[in-house]
């Protein structure tokens, strides 16, 4: 028995049967000393403190765990299980000066009690909670905090106006140093208003906490307004991600781009990963992208240490091709004009890059959107000779030159000779008929066996909008012959590690997946 209790393989197998169940994990700790050490070394599920009684438990996006009353009971909780904490704050409907004071006191007691254990802290609340967060960081010492995540979601916490916070004039200006804080995420999901003033409280706190984190390595921001002075950083930032929200046209704040230019100039010498994205909630055909002309530019001195560059909005974050070609150390490159929007015509910017023929010798992971011709697809291999992972979005305009039901075969033929490729993702229109889809499956069953992971997603535009619809193969198309042919191909398609199809329905069945390590589940 003692030998069995000391066998880590046995313990790993037992633990795998209790994923994410902290109650059962606590019981396993009592079995033996080794078991206690192993369980405590795991990434323990976060403790969720829901202080918002308006959030309904168990109803979709509102689910945040049971409401915790003001009398928090935590003395019986083992301190090592409090490494990850999530707090849901109440909205203004339940808050007043007295309620806020009581709330702040409860959170302070909890954070102080586990101050040396907390490594990850995430907070969900409404707008104007920044002063409260500032006060918590001033009064609660969190010496081992490594990750901080702030989410502003007025819809989820049911804020109709502004969160009733603390008087900002009485909040101490400086947050104590956070030497172990290396990752900060600030995500705006929804706001009652989308101008720079709404949420200014959080922006101020964000700047203050960044200034207090001299060893910050990762910073992610999703908001419609950006103002972070690069000089407040400690010179350790390696990864920066900005997702700019521009879904409220009337409140678009173009000064964010000018602020971004200055920020990138300040951090350019040590940045290794840069990701720029944009949320556009309007049809691209009617959107005025000319207003962004000459507003954004890459740092004049380049980005000498950059290894990964993602630009998901090249119509906004405009990058001259010659500047891109100077990024000789890149290993990961991801370029799209506007994310998640399919275009009937190809991307002028992406195809302009391919036409130049510049060789990117170090890039091993590549994503390009809006490729408009087979000749452009054929350029990818010679221009990126070290590719291991490739993702392409093919313009539907390209399909008009070919018989539609041979389209995917033509696309895949251009990648047949790419040596070293292990992952391939293609976003393109699927065949019109189910029988033609089977023709493609038959072709795919013998396509480049060294490509171990294949993903295909259907993408098609209508004449009226840039929406992407599901491709539906009606169950009537699946007669006895086609059904037999389909299941006859399954063994060959399971030889890869994974082959996945999304954006497609077979009758009422959504998607399709073949995996080497699991049995295929019949769909007809």
UniProtKB/TrEMBL annotation:
<dbReference type="InterPro" id="IPR032675">
    <property type="entry name" value="LRR_dom_sf"/>
</dbReference>
<protein>
    <submittedName>
        <fullName>Uncharacterized protein</fullName>
    </submittedName>
</protein>
């Amino acid at each position: 028995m003692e030998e069995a209790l000391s066998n880590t393989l046995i313990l790993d197998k037992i633990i795998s049967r209790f994923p994410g169940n902290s109650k059962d994990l606590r019981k396993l700790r009592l079995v033996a000393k080794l078991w206690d050490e192993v369980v405590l070394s795991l990434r323990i599920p976060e403790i969720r403190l829901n202080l918002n009684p308006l959030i309904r438990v168990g109803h979709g996006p509102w689910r945040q765990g049971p409401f915790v009353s003001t009398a928090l009971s935590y003395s019986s909780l083992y301190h090592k299980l409090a490494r990850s904490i999530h707090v849901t704050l109440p909205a203004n409907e339940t808050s007043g000066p007295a309620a806020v004071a009581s709330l702040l006191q409860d959170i302070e007691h909890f954070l102080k009690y586990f101050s040396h254990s907390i490594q990850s802290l995430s907070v969900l609340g409404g707008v104007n909670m920044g002063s409260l967060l500032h006060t918590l960081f001033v009064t609660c010492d969190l010496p081992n905090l490594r990750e901080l995540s702030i989410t502003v979601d007025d819809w989820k916490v049911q804020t109709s106006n502004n969160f009733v916070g603390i008087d900002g004039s009485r909040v101490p200006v400086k947050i104590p140093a956070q030497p172990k804080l290396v990752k900060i995420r600030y995500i705006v999901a929804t706001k009652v208003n989308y101008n720079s003033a709404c949420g200014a409280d959080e922006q101020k706190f964000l700047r203050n906490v960044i200034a207090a984190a001299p060893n910050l390595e990762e910073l992610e921001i999703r908001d419609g307004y950006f103002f972070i002075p690069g000089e407040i950083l400690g010179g350790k930032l390696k990864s920066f991600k900005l997702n700019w929200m521009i879904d409220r046209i009337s409140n678009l704040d173009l000064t964010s781009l000018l602020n971004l230019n200055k920020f990138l100039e300040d951090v350019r010498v040590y940045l290794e990963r840069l990701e720029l994205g944009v949320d556009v909630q309007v049809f691209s055909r009617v959107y005025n992208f000319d207003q962004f002309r000459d507003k954004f530019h890459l740092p004049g001195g380049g980005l000498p240490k950059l290894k990964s560059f993602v630009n998901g909005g090249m119509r906004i974050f405009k990058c001259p091709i010659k500047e891109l070609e100077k990024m000789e150390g890149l290993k990961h490159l991801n370029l799209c004009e506007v994310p998640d929007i399919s275009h009937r015509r190809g991307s002028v910017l992406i195809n302009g890059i391919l036409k130049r023929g510049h060789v990117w010798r170090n890039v091993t992971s590549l994503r390009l959107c809006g490729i408009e011709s087979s000749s452009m697809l054929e350029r990818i291999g010679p221009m990126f000779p070290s590719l291991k992972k490739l993702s392409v979005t093919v313009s539907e305009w390209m399909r008009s030159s070919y018989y539609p039901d041979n389209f995917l075969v033509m696309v895949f033929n251009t990648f047949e000779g790419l040596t070293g490729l292990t992952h391939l993702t293609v976003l393109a229109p699927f065949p019109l008929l189910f029988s033609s889809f089977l023709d493609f499956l038959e072709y795919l069953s013998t396509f480049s066996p060294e490509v171990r992971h294949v993903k295909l997603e259907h993408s098609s535009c209508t004449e009226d909008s840039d929406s992407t619809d599901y491709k539906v193969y009606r169950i009537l198309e699946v007669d006895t012959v086609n059904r037999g042919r389909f299941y006859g191909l399954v063994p060959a398609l399971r030889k890869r590690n994974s082959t996945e199809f999304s954006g497609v329905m077979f009758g009422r069945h959504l998607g399709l997946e073949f995996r080497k390590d699991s049995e295929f589940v019949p769909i007809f």
